[in-house]
Design a protein that fits this description.
The complex is a heterodimer of chains A (about 120) and B (about 500). Chain A is built from three helices and no strands. By secondary structure, chain A is mainly alpha-helical. Chain A has a single domain, classed as Methane Monooxygenase Hydroxylase, Chain G, domain 1 (Up-down Bundle), CATH 1.20.58. In chain A, helix 2 packs antiparallel against helix 3. Chain B has about 500 residues and is mainly α. Chain B is about 75% helix and about 0% strand. Classes of the chains: A mainly alpha (about 120), B mainly alpha (about 500). At the A-B interface, helix 3 of A face helix 1 of B.
Chain lengths: ~120, ~500
Amino acid sequence: MSLPAYFPILLLTILAGAFAVVSIFVANRLTPRRWTDVKVEPYECGITPEEMPERERFPVKFYLVAMLFIVFDIETVFMYPWAVEYKALKAFGLAEMGTFIGILLAAYVYVWRRGGLEWAE
Amino acid sequence: MTPFNVPPIHLSGIAPEITLMIAAFAVLFIGVFTNDRFNHVVQPLVATIGFGIAIYWAVVSWGIARTAELQLSNMVALDRFAIFAKVVLAAFGVLTVWTARDHLSTHHLRDFEFYALVLFCVSGMMLMAASADLIVMFIALETFSIALYVMVGYRRDELAGQESAMKYFLLGAFSSAFFLLGIALVYGATGSTNLYGTPGHPGILSFLTGSSALDVGLLLLGMAFLIVGLGFKIAAVPFHMWTPDAYQGAPSPVTGFMASATKLAAFAAILRLFDVAMYSLRWDWRPYLIGLAIASMVIGSVVALVQEDVKRILAYSSIAHAGFVLTGVIAANDAGVSSSLFYLATYGLTILGAFAVVAAIGGRGERRVRLADYRGLYHESPLLAGAMTLFLLSLAGVPITAGFVGKLVVFIAAIQAGYWWLVVVALAMSAVAAFFYIRIIVVMYMSERLEPLPEGGGPAPVVLGAAGRAVVGVTALATIFFGLIWGPLIGLAGHATLFAG
């Protein structure tokens, strides 16, 4: 291992550290502070915040939908290269893909039967 | 275009894992097409049959594995070490399923998904023990970790469960990132993620033995990151911060499972990684692991002294035990590997039994888990108190229990490797640790029984169904049996050698 070769990395580390420290320092000194009620809200996004239920469980359905979307989205990602190289992969590719889709299908049946796809209770 | 050649596919190395995956899907399918009452009766049996078939596959490949080999493009090792670990992991899985059955019905929780999670989890752990490539190791790590995150927070509507699941998940994800960075650095150093490497394909082992290999700086950095990632899973100090909280908030059967199976899986990976693949770097990784071992033994034993919650006491005790097993890893000889396996197998059985007792005493909502709640348990349930005493004595390492033999063989291995001073530290810390185990025993026997208050307060009744009784009985018998007749199991562990490249 030659140390001079790593010199640029050391330089970059120092630069990055200095940048962080200087920006925090400068931002602290130069920023004007004018607090208003809207600004100190937890999520400042322009919409009046909803009252949160206290110590109570509430459904996060969109989260479940997002997760299911990712699962089946990834499936498509794997199918695309297989479709392109279908001829080269021959029966082996078909069998592998069949196994893969079979597992996903099983998960799909489970989610369906378990009520994961129903929006209202 | 180069033609695609199908690599040879032998599934004998991962037959147990595949079996468990199929069993998990079977559990999920039966679960969603039938009602809860049917599930409660049938599903533990389905899971047990799955584990049984997995054990069968593992046992029949014991003979084949006389000559260890790599399979599936050198991704998975078929050796007796992996088979031993798989059989023990499947046994832990069965015990967890039956402990959990009582616990889940007490809490009116839907249970079939829990059994599926145990099956998925053990499948990942088995793959961890057999993985011959860092990428496979990572996939296995995530497979069992994600299932564990869900299991830890299985009592969803309780704040303690949510807290522990959240802490375990966040810190677990953090440690996975360390592990991944370690893999990246190892790849950068050696040009491969394989632990062994074959002619034409580099690997860590062939990289270290083949070339003059003076340029290992990057590999050492990667190694340190891998130690962080795996150290988290075995709950070694200073990566133990999550342990007391996660162990306390998780349902007791899950806590037992984490203490036994997770440790075994992570230690299996550590043994393969450090005692085989990075064996020639042992003078570089030993200082780290010695530091972890001493810190774990000292902090685990000393901090447990001031805990008032039995689950937290056992959590700190599990940290200390990680330190004891690490002495076997540090020895880095054949005796070190086999004694670590023996230690993990017997410790796992004991801690599963102990947490089955904790689950029974905890009752509804696990409100009865403080040390004060164990007062006079002997008068209330002599058998349960007796079993708990046995488990605690084994954890303390008192003769005629399995824990004593485990400590003995691990320490002998360390002394053979010249680490007698590490053993002196370990013995001193065992003496410290004995104090808090005996403290629980004293509380159970020497105090007055807690009387139920007329307005319904006071101690909750002990909940122990037939399955729970069987688990406590089996683990108690095993603790005594391996304390008296340790020869056969140590013999098997001695045959359970790692594929050496």
